[in-house]
Amino acid sequence: MKFIKHISIILIILTTSMLSAQVKFDAKVSKQKLGVNERLRIDFEMNQDGDNFNPTDFSNFTVVGGPNQSVSNSWINGVRSFKKTYSYFLAPKGRGNFTIAQATINIGGETYKTVPIPIEVTAAVEIPKDPNNPEYIASENIHLVAEISKTNPYLNEAITVVYKLYVSPNIAVDSWNEIDSPRYNDFWSQNIDTQDQKVQNGMFKGEEYRFLVLRKKVLYPQKTGKLDIEPLSLDIALRVPTNRRDIFGSLMMTRTNRVVSAGNSTINVKALPEEGKPLDFSGAVGDFSFDVVPSKTSLDASESLQLKVAVKGNGNLKLFKLPKVSLPSSLEVYEPEHKEEVNTSLSGMQGAISDSYTIVPQFKGKYPIPSISFSYFDLKTEKYKRLSSDEIILDVLDGPINNANTNNATVTNNGKQAVVLNKDQFAFIKTKTTFESIHNTTFFKTTGFWSLLLLPFLAIPLAIVIRNKKATRDADVYGNRIRKADKLAKKYLSHAKKSLGQKEAFYIALEKALHNYLKAKLHIETYDLSKEKINELLAAKQVENEVIVDFNKILESCELARYTPIDIVTMREDYEKAAKTISLIDKQAR
């Protein structure tokens, strides 16, 4: 019996020592369900010290505090108790069901991992109105507001969004971090510089606040209907007062974090009226003037002049094309040089755009440059307006005379000379020859003779082979559709390909190419290029949903890429993606 008793004591001691030596490494959270406006604390605890602690990346959360490290040692009944803890404070980036992945640490040469923890993030919850709670104090004293100049603009009418951060004088802001930036997918957008903005005093909800303008944005809606302006969200580190006072009687401050959001805004974009819309309307919206000015009107043949077609004013200057110039065929005209001198402020785009044509007359005479028209939608009167230039007469004083029709070489009553051809037009044809005799050689039975004789017979099988290949190719309906689609994609994207390496020019050209393709393929106008309309028409043509989604993503990328750093490799990838998508749409569309 004594032997059994001793054995039992030994087993108990061994078991106790083994349990005490067992390594524990756990992750514990303050809660597994929280609102998007709440904080989550996670502690990684271990009962033995280790090396190479590697936490999870917290991809769905923002780390607003930590890691904080604490160590405790205690001896109870001769048994040592050790605990080391790494603590993090997290703010969720959005709603959803997430998993905090495993953390790892190396203890005694072995790697230990925690168990993954599921977390549910719900919509914002009401924070208890506890006047001593720092988070409640922060929520009542700091606000982010998006001020929108107009909520029912016309298509291509400028609106502004100004983001202001209001802070009560009772709290102090240490820093902030932008955790969610709005994407203006359905707008042409431009940032206005706010670097020199200073803190100002103002009123918010009837109370005195300090405020700072964080961002100014000018937007031009590119489609009609209800468009969302996504919220701007900031994670702000601040200090709020407590009920405690220091030895000098001043209120003591405590640190906390607060996520503020400007909130989602919706605007209703009106379509431009159909009544009175000119046939040559190119989408210009605003208040403009129109000029067609030659650098000179009197010159000699083979001299050059510049003809400048310019639009000045306030409106969507970068978003429409200037009218083309139509000139007599006797005037040699080169491709115009496009120039933009546009500034963007809170009132929208202001400045001028122009096309400068180089013109070289070939013959003496007087040549009319017909009147050119430009139409736009005037926001003040909400009607379409047309501006026309005066007719310009170019007087070519010296040079060859065009006498193609001698009977019509006289000057007409209005002072314009008919365009005629030079009387020496056939002077280059020689009328005298210097023929020399050649030796009389026999062609019969020569190599050339036999080659010409046999060539038709050799050409017959070659013609049969070519004909069969053509018939096979014509019968390949699917292959022909692929070749036609690829050719169409290259046609529309040719200008974008030429601009590779020039970020803004490339993405503007790429976006225009996609829009022009849709207009040609779906028979719609620019003002009707809404996302819903495009999806509806492509789906009606039996285009696969995945291809439609890819096309919309490319359009979104064009908008975002203009204002973010992009390298030429990414540009090439976007070009190839656009070409592939256009090709797929053309193959699938019925």
Automatic annotation (TrEMBL):
It holds the Pfam family BatD. The chain crosses the membrane at residues 448-466. InterPro entries: BatD (IPR025738). Keywords: Membrane, Signal, Transmembrane, Transmembrane helix. Residues 1-21 form the signal peptide. PANTHER family: BATD, PROTEIN BATD-RELATED. This is Oxygen tolerance protein BatD.
